[in-house]
Amino acid sequence: MQNRLSTVAIVIVALIAVLYQFVFKSLLFDSLGYGRRTTNISAFNVKCQKLQDPGLEACEDMWLHEPSGLLYLACSDSQHRPSWVPSLVHFNVSGRPMSDHIAVLDTRSDKPLKSRLQWLRVENFSGNNGDGTLNLHGIDLREDTASGRLQLLAINHRPPLDPTTGAELDPKSIGANSTIELFEIEMDSGKPAMKHIKTYADKVIDTPNRVAWVGEDAFVFSNDASSKTGIRRAFDVFLGCGSVGYCNDHDCHKAYEKGFIFPNGLVHGRDGLIYVPSSVTGEVQVFSITPKQHLKQVDSFQVPYPIDNLSVDRNGDIYAATFPNLHKLLKSAEDPFKVNPASAVFKIRKVTETSEAEIRREGRYLVEKIMEDDGSVLPGSTTALHDAEGGRIYLGGTFSPFVTVCELGQD
Ligand SMILES: *[C@@H]1O[C@H](CO)[C@@H](O)[C@H](O)[C@H]1NC(C)=O
Ligand SMILES: *[C@@H]1O[C@H](CO)[C@@H](O)[C@H](O)[C@H]1NC(C)=O
Ligand SMILES: *[C@@H]1O[C@H](CO)[C@@H](O)[C@H](O)[C@H]1NC(C)=O
Ligand SMILES: *[C@@H]1O[C@H](CO)[C@@H](O)[C@H](O)[C@H]1NC(C)=O
Ligand SMILES: CC(=O)N[C@H]1CO[C@H](CO)[C@@H](O)[C@@H]1O
């Protein structure tokens, strides 16, 4: 008996030690980044500047139209944003931002910020009970080759409403009503606008985070959690969670759901592959799309910090916005004007010219840190976008009251 008890005790202690070693320790130090020192941005060859304008706040996601240099930003307001963040289970409907909108910034102009910034008017979109509002998160755009039109997909975290009476339902029990909205952009008319075409509402679109076009009328998106609400979410970080969904013109289905931990800002690479980053582990999983529109994992690689969102530049290189101190980002979600968390940006280049043997040894992806900051210059960046032509990086953050642009020095 004695013996068995002590065996049990030993096993429990060993289990806790193992958990500490592999789960809690990596959670505390690698993922949440307690005690991680960040490098001063002055150590990097970059010159950064804040772009501050009323409305250019909480711009979580952006997309660059390479030919024109027009940068499309999905912005919100930093003061109200923390009330309504379904991905962090912040569900205060009455405090939610009511003025989310898409900004268009002319990045090739030297004029003052005001005169190169426009806001898209929303047309033919009823919103919730006719209020016309959006609650933006991830976006993606594509240029339709036939019409030359830009098509915008936007994740929209609607407050839940009773479908028949329109009465407000409690998001704490049923979660946000997250949908994906398709708009067409009209820039030519002098009054730039985005016209609503379609709402994708489907049970597969559950906790959407980012969306990526994969073809005409087809896109993938990440669900970042196991469910909208409920107890399982508390274990997501240990048990894993999330999925990638695929939608085409007629329906949506789960395309992959094994082994994710908070899959976040995914992208469609220039190589046709789908890159899905984890905002907890910093792992990027790489997938191809099968003819049946499912995902098949073909590779993976590690970035040292938890990753938020990826973006692809003209050359096909991928840029990752990361958090050296995730715990501070979570704090900035409570108080965006006071807490400005650290951020770091990595450039990821796919190795194509080396031999297969070398790739097996070194990996197919080169991961290079190109800037890091303790939070004094960069916004708590959730998105970093590289403009290869201008040699600049644009950074935006979910809660940040400004956007930052950095000129990359020549080295
Ligand atoms: C970073 O470097 C700048 C310029 O060298 C300096 O003024 C600033 O105090 C440094 N910040 C920190 C946190 O060390
Ligand atoms: C929700 O937001 C409203 C409006 O900003 C605020 O007055 C209220 O205190 C918030 N409620 C909670 C529970 O935080
Ligand atoms: C607005 O939307 C309605 C239905 O959603 C559609 O019938 C109508 O043609 C649209 N109007 C314009 C100007 O696109
Ligand atoms: C969610 O939004 C869709 C699209 O507007 C709507 O049809 C549906 O009734 C909404 N559901 C809830 C629970 O709000
Ligand atoms: C647009 C987008 O995907 N944003 C995500 C970037 O990462 C943050 C932090 O994890 C998420 O909250 C956003 O959803």
Automatic annotation (TrEMBL):
Transmembrane segments annotated in the record for this chain: 6-28
| Coiled-coil positions | none
Keyword Transmembrane on entry: yes
Keywords, A to Z? Membrane, Transmembrane, Transmembrane helix
Highest taxon, organism lineage: Eukaryota
What's the protein name?
Calcium-dependent phosphotriesterase
User: What organism does the record attribute this protein to?
Assistant: Coleophoma cylindrospora
> What lineage is on file?
Eukaryota, Fungi, Dikarya, Ascomycota, Pezizomycotina
